[in-house]
Amino acid sequence: AAADAAGRVLMVGHTFEYNAAVRRVREEIDAGNLGDVLQIISQRLNLGQVRTDVDALWNLAPHDISIALYWLGHDAPKWVSAQGFAFIQQTVADMGTITIGFETGAVAHIVVSWLSPDKVRKVYVIGSRNMIVYDDVSPDAKVQIFDKGIDRVGASGESWSKHDDFAEFQLKLRSGDLLVPRIDFQEPLKVEANHFIECARTGATPLSDGISGFRVVQVLEAADQSIANGGIRIDLEPYSDGEN
């Protein structure tokens, strides 16, 4: 609100939204190639750096929350449930999980930890039609698109939708091709900085604007509330800019 009142451009540093691989996944989702997004399963694990001023959830999860919200676009987060575990320091969680429920029924499950022997930066996007793996650590296969899924097949062998009238059906595993698209990768921080400069020059609204930053912090604060209350679901208040 202060930025709007002052006529200034406000942008937050969600660098992964400027990552070419992350953007490719968004393109696949927007094109409908995955069908309905059902689940996002994110793992951000490493050995350290153990900190005392912030826990692992606030340290690592903002990246994955921003990615999930970016991928799901206009699908608003509805509730949050979280757990935190402190093994090294009694009052600072070094491992935790955050689950975000969305209006459409999609769920994002985020796992973060400072206590992993391997560096893992991997996200699974499970669609009703296809699936994608985004692996930020992989040097040459950051995005993998799988023609895999579980189909409902009617008694006649034809596909059966959950929207059809009642009919006998069976669940059939489908495993098709694997596509590893070529991605022209640019340094995300450079892309982000150039985008900010362009928005400052033109007055355009940044991709990662103040509302984007608010929504990520809203999820993290709800996660804190959930942890403090035994992991219960915390409903999120819809964002209002005062005009809607």
Brief characterization of the structure:
The chain has helices at residues 2-6, 20-30, 56-72, 188-202, 210-228, and strands at residues 37-47, 77-85, 95-102, 107-113, 115-127, 131-135, 143-154, 169-179, 234-235. By secondary structure, it is of the alpha+beta class.
> How many E strands?
9
Structural class: alpha+beta
Strand content: 25-35%
Low-confidence stretches: none
- Proportion of helical residues: 25-40%
Shape: globular
Strand order of the largest sheet: 8-7-6-5-1-4-3-2-9
What does the main sheet amount to? 9 strands, mixed
H/E element order: HHEHEEEEEEEHHE
Task: Calculate the mean pLDDT score and round it.
Answer: 91
Count of alpha and pi helical runs: 5
Radius of gyration: 20 Å
Distance between the termini: 14 Å
Task: List the SSEs and their pairings.
Elements: H1 2-6, H2 20-30, E1 37-47, H3 56-72, E2 77-85, E3 95-102, E4 107-113, E5 115-127, E6 131-135, E7 143-154, E8 169-179, H4 188-202, H5 210-228, E9 234-235
Parallel strand pairs: 1-4
Antiparallel strand pairs: 1-5, 2-3, 2-9, 3-4, 5-6, 6-7, 7-8
Helix pairs in contact: 2-3, 3-5
